[in-house]
Amino acid sequence: MRKLIKKLMLSACSLCLLVACTEEPSPQQPESSNTSGDVRQQLDMYQNLAWHVVSLLQSQSTPTQISDSVTTLIGSSKQLFVNLKEQLPECEESLNVMAQIAMIKQQHIEIENGGSQEELPKLPEFSAPSCYHAQKLLLNPLAVYTLTQQADLAQSDYQHAKLKMIDSFARIKQIEMIAAE
After folding, report:
1. CA–CA gap between residue 164 and residue 50 (Å, rounded)
2. Which DSSP helix (H) or strand (E) runs through 151?
3. What is the pLDDT of residue 35?
4. Angstrom distances, CA of residue 118 to CA of 97, 103, 108, 109, 121
5. pLDDT (mean) for 77-105
């Protein structure tokens, strides 16, 4: 039963990613008021992917399975950071760097040391609490990814990674509250 649920969750996440990847905005389109709807949808997708990572951590899946899910989460968050700029204008510099880091990190993970590593840009100091919450949406999955690169994961590693991902849910709620103001 548990394996069936895992397969269903993985299928649902894959389907969400496929649908999200096929929708490309045209570069000539001006920014519309639909960005808040896009942000909401992207936050929902981020949350669903994060829940999938948490379920893998709870079932103590292999580091490779967890790493693959976290890689998907990191890659999908790039557009979220770009779209959050309208909701969090005070964080524009930070969100630009975060989108760049997400793209570089995903490319590096996909290459798996097959090419030269680009140095990741430094995140600027956050200028508002909302910037801190947004940064955690990138830093928490990166911390979990780093943990999964260990040869053996101890029980405490799974617990620590799970807490990092659960912290991301709190950050989503904080961003939603700030954006609603």
Report:
1. 10
2. none
3. 59
4. 14, 11, 8, 11, 9
5. 87
Q: How far is CA 26 from the centre of its chain?
A: 23
Q: What token pair was written down for 138?
A: 């990138």
Cα–Cα distance for residue pair 95/92, rounded to 1 Å: 5
Tokens coding 126: 């956050």
118: nearest Cα among 134, 142, 138, 102: 102
User: For the chain, first and last CA: distance in Å?
Assistant: 43
Contact 98, 123 (CB under 8 A): yes
| CA–CA separation, 22 and 149 (whole Å) | 30
CB 101 within 8 A of CB 124: no
Phi and psi of 179, rounded to 5°?
Answer: -70, -30
| Separation of alpha carbons 49 and 122, rounded Å | 25
Q: List phi, psi (to 5°) of 18.
A: -65, -45
Nearest to 11 by CA among 52, 42, 40, 71: 52
Handedness of CA 108, 76, 91, 168 (dihedral sign): negative
CB 122, CB 100: distance < 8 Å: no
Query: Whole-model pTM above 0.85?
Result: no
Q: What is the DSSP-derived secondary structure letter of residue 153?
A: -
